[in-house]
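Journal club prep — side note

Before the paper discussion, L.F. wants everyone to see what a predicted structure for a comparable chain looks like in token form. Sequence:
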Amino acid sequence: MTTWIVTTGNIDVQILRDRKNNWGSLYSDVRDDLVCNEFANLSKLNPYDRDSNYTAPARVIGCVYGHRLDDYQDLIFPLLDTFCRYFQQKNIKPERIIVLLTDQSQIFSEEQILYASCPYWQDTCTLKPILTWYLHKNLGIKPEFETLEPTKLKHGLDHWNETLLIVKQTFQKLKDNPLKTVYLSHQAGTPAISSAVQFVSLGQFKKVEFVLSNYYYDDNYNLQSEPDIIPSSEYGRGIQIQKAKQLIISGFPGAALKILEGIERIKPNIITELNQMVDFFNLYRSDTDTNDDLTVEASTQRIVDSLDLLGIFFSHKNYLQGIALLMAAHETFLKAAILSKVQKLNSTINLEGVIWSVYDLVKWLPLGLFLNQSLQNASIDTKKQALTAVNFPVINYRLESDSDFNVTNKNFALLAWLQALEPNIETWNLMKRYCKKEPEFDKDLRNQLVHNLCGMKDTDVVKYLRGSKTECGSDVMKIYNEHVKEPFFKALQLLELPFTREKLQKRLQEIANML
């Protein structure tokens, strides 16, 4: 059956300005039954408007008018009038009307309800006979009632979590036909009630349309209202977009793209931007040739991008992912730094009768940094000459067979090579740990945590980033920025490696704002 669910609020039943004189005699009949007797005088809704209607707390209006059917002509229902006008204009007759009332009597003591300001007096539960009369008169239907009753002390219907739970429990009792529309009017009541009703209904009912009241001023500046309908798809769309925004800002553009699939009216340029950001997070640049991946410029940019990505990973405690990327960034840096220094060596060398430009002696291959493959069959002495020409510390290593020359791609040798090419380079603890020939601490911590898929605590990550065996705090981001990222950028700048610094967080916010 077609259902209309409507919430009620403290000022949804008002007293007509020209009927307010009836209030005194009606109120005197019930005042002795009220714990608090401070409601003798009505309040104007708008004290600056001489034509304004009057109001009193909803519980009091219900107690005063109760079953006085003959006196209901004193009352006016502005919000309900607008909603009913919608159904009448559209010739829609709900088969069922469910009115949500409120009753907070269980959470307030008698001492508390002595005060007129207590939320107890704003409850709408006493309006049941009045609302029954009104809805039957206007739509020909006697409504059903569900009462929102908080039971936890200090958790009234302004409390968001408690109210959400109460609304969920109430809606679970409601049965609907999934093939028929559930109309929902949720503008009345506390903000917590309105939001909870909206949220729960979107999750529970298949077909939901929101019947709302839009206020406006006419040509004479009189406040008017007209009914409007908003399909649940618009609310759902808005919720999905907000989810996508948060995912983008948090550094999950791929997840945001998944949410936006199938949502109408998303501009194509936003999808393009998100796809590009997904590529960025995968360190893939679609505007570059894959053959250029192992160049100084391309690899340096990937290093810089990685350092920014690491900030997002660590801030979200994605430690395993972050440490794997950090290790790759260091190793890529060593190769790019060495290659950039070698490329600046403009001398030549005669090797077995062939004149070589020194910068051609070293090649960066997918497997690592090695002597040019053309020297693969050269003698051991020739290979040593070639390495000496590019400032590789030959005397530090045993180079007696062809396989021994693979040492050029070992971290400990790469660092020594870089220091020979650039004596002013300042290393940091984590770099030193990566490049130790026998990295005991690295084996002890990284192997345990990464290779065995063990969990990481903040303190473990801090020790790892500091390259320390001792406890040194738990502020991962502070340690990462001060002990890894800052010295990393100093090294890049010293070596004059080319890169563009993108403000990643700002860019993510800009894309989110485009939605």
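L.F.'s comment for the group: The chain has a mean pLDDT of 86. Keep this in mind when we get to the figures.
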